[in-house]
Amino acid sequence: MYQVFDEASTPAASSDRVEALLRELKKRRLKGFLVPHSDQHQNEFLPPSEERLAWLTGFTGSAGVAIVTASGSALFVDGRYILQAPEQVDTEIFEVLQIPKAKPSEWLKSKLVRNNAVGYDARLHTISEIERLTKSLGAAGIRLRALKDNPIDRIWGTDRPAPPQAEIFAQPLEFAGKGSGEKLIHVQMELVEAEHDAVLLTSPESICWLFNYRGGDIRHTPVALAHAIVPAKGRPTLFIDAEKVGEPMRDALKPFTDIAAPDELDAALTKLAKSGAKVRLDEGSASMHFANVLSAGGTKHVAGGDPCTLPKAIKTNAEQQGARSAQLRDGVAMARFLAWLDEVGETGRVDEVSAAIKLEEFRRETGQLKDISFDTIAASGPHGAIVHYRPTNDSKRVLDRNSLFLIDSGGQYTDGTTDVTRTVAVGKPTAEMKRHYGLVLRCHIAIASARFPEGSRGQDLDPFARGPLWAAGLDFDHGTGHGVGSYLSVHEGPQRISRLATEELESGMILSNEPGFYREGQYGIRLENLVLVRPAEKIDGGERKMLSFETLTLVPFDRRLIDPKQLMPWELDWLNDYHVRVREKLEPLIASEDRPWLRHATAPIR
Questions:
Q1: Which of 228, 281, 428, 497 is found 20 to 30 A from 206 (Cα to Cα)?
Q2: Is 584 part of a structural domain of the chain?
Q3: Could you list the residue range(s) of the whole structural domain that residue 115 is in?
Q4: What is the Cα–Cα distance from 201 to 238, expressed in whole angstroms?
Q5: Is 39 helix (H, G, I), strand (E, B) or coil?
Q6: Would you say 596 and 343 are in contact if contact means Cβ atoms under 8 Å apart?
Q7: Residues 279 and 319 grouped into a single domain
Q8: In a shared domain, residues 393 and 466
Q9: pTM assigned to the model
Q10: What is the pLDDT of residues 276-290, one digit of tens each?
Q11: Nearest to 405 by CA among 429, 388, 438, 372
Q12: What is the arithmetic mean of pLDDT over 305-322?
């Protein structure tokens, strides 16, 4: 199994660990310490050796920061985790607060006084994050101090997992669509145009994309932990553990890059700084440590975006076709799963863990699954209201009759990454369940069918996915959509759909379309497809270049939860057209015993 279901949270150990941390802080004359969910690459998902926040607090979400002081401690999370976090941490030790309603800087000001110092590990915080915090705390006379070593690493002990050492492997040109040489030329031309001498790449996804390889250092995300310096002229250097690079990959990389050990990176940056080179750092993703290294070498970094981020997000024709192929394969697995669930879901023998296991089995039976793209969210009844709930052997619920079951999952295939969510009825749904499902479905259709001018941003489209819910006095506390990589991270920037999304959407980008509704203690509803940005079909009288979405995911929506009276005629047309396409694509590939289910699941709704 790619997914494990053991309980990873250890809140009972928090008291001793926090006390040990406070003793360490006292030795260093610090009044507080920041513990983010991050590593030196700012990865969303971390190798076990980097899970400091989970080790200290018990919180296992993918985003958050704890602050420990002698006057009290707090855990800050966003809206996705506001229900999960209090269940995982000892709330007598950690006050759980929701960002952005609560701000870490303001909380620190309430706990500390002028001339107090707060420590942080500069490798784990971005430049922009530390600059904002320094400015805010500085106004109150509170100082931030970068530490030479992380105090949690000192007290973690011998049970800390070893760093990952998975070997890297090539991503074939037939799936990448562009060779490393062509990509490097693009990056170096951008540096020349900006008059920057070099860029430090800190994102493993960017480095994997640039050099057309994949790795296995992070569960479910096929990347290798590495850094790279790309000069405007000359050969780049890849800083990666030698054990990760076998002879075939060493030969493949040799024409494009030099390879060096990770512990040589700081010296290489110092050398550039002493030469007066203009070294670009992405202040939103590069750690403060690298800015400090350059500054100590005599040169301040120049701010600029990661030059791989945008071209990586705009998929090549090969990547777009790969995404379609992966979605078709994944749709067959999902259809088989939903058919199985309809048969056994009401028997009382299916729980959240067994459902997740069964879905992974169906994906494995495609013969091309490399991994799942994240831990499956299989949530029955009230667990569905916990946005990023992960079932464990301790927490699992049996699928109750007359309830809702939410399953959010995805697969990693060589030709693409998938992510799909469906909410289905187990037994007979209530009128309220159907009403809320209908509202979420209307929000989903609004995005799927949207036409928008070139230059539109994710924040321009976000209201489309909330209008029907807003009209009913409802909303959801997460973004509407995130970017998706090509056999890379299931969460990819810069493209997204949310209130804060300022990046322009461009043809070739892949995003999720996933509005939801969550009733605490009862159920959650989320409906997610992946969509590809493409030019919109021209219409008579149209004067501007427009874009639209091609829906890639091919999985039926649950007809038992759809009241056609809730939908506008054009919305019903969209739904029926979508189901026709799902049936036509999947039926030739699905087993004969599942075809009656598929035909019923995609039958017209009038």
A1: 497
A2: yes
A3: 11-156
A4: 9
A5: coil
A6: no
A7: no
A8: yes
A9: 0.93
A10: 999 999 999 999 999
A11: 429
A12: 98
